[in-house]
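BUG-352 | component: ligand-complex export | severity: low

The export step for S-adenosyl-L-homocysteine jobs runs without errors, but we want the raw record kept on the ticket for reference. Input record follows.
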Amino acid sequence: MNEYNTLKKLIDKLYSSHSLLREEWTALIAGRSPRLSEYLFCLARKVRHQHYGRDIYIRGLIEFTNYCRNDCLYCGIRKSNPHIHRYRLSESEILACCRQGYKEGFRTFVLQGGEDSFYTDTRMESLIHAIKNRYPDCALTLSIGERSTDSCRHLFGAGADRYLLRHETYDAAHYAKLHPASLSAAARQKCLRDLKDIGFQTGTGFMVGSPYQTVDNLASDMLFIQRLNPHMAGIGPFIPHHDTPFSKQKAGTLELTLFLLGLLRLLLPRVLLPATTALGSIHPYGRELGILAGANVIMPNLSPRHVRDSYSLYDNKLSTGAESAEGLRLLKSQMSAIGYHIVTARGDSLVH
Ligand code: SAH
């Protein structure tokens, strides 16, 4: 049997059993080709249509603080970058973002930020109450890094519904190459398990093509995601930021990111899978191609315009045009051009 047929059989196995062995993951990822990708994307779309039809869920992303106590080597808002303007949105600015978003049809708001010690449990709780009281029909997602089990419990008790915390990379040695010594893969993964146990709809994920990443690392990521069985999985290409130690590293590719999106759709048929901002940032049709590879979520930027440039995780991050909430009409027409439609709905995960 030639290699294409061998790998096609692995995709069929993934489609029917939702599981592969480590060596099968590595063979598939290392041996991928445009022809194999086409085969994969066809199946991924079929699975996505079975569970989510042609609906696309949108999330209004509010980047509410870019202060961060961490020093992740890839991230532009790391604490030792002195060249960015630091900001925190006030509660009324955040509520204004929600008001605008609600009017435009958003029914999920995502509060994302650096790990900002200003946001104690008490402050987060009051923010969560303020949003959930005004928008009880909306889901609220937090993406604010690692917190203690107790803190996560408080935030869930206050009414937050979902939590995004990418594991970034499962392998401890690889994790250590991307993060300062104060952070560990084990702590990150423990936090994810806590979030799930507490009852959050939980999202994890990783960067594609991060420095030093191997195919075996990616196999570990897929095996971890299978074990965790998250409600959401966010992946996007690593993109260098000029003010970080990784400024000269190569970006992850569109092609590998799309392939992994397709694999994730087959691995976890009901997972919420975003076509991420990073994917849209490396290619003009990145978002559309992500949807055609099996993704079903888009997270336009709802942050006030004047802070968008300061939330600079990586260079040339999209925040305007179809990537922005004001560009929703454009996004809608881009999606209908490829046969999909944006819906006004909370868009809860079908994963139990
Ligand atoms: N502080 C929060 C939110 C981080 S920003 C947390 O720790 O979860 C959200 C995601 O952006 C990160 O999880 C990371 O995967 C991604 N990111 C950060 N820097 C990036 C870069 N240079 N290229 C691509 N993605 C990046």
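Assignee comment: Attached the raw record above. The chain has one domain: 2-343.
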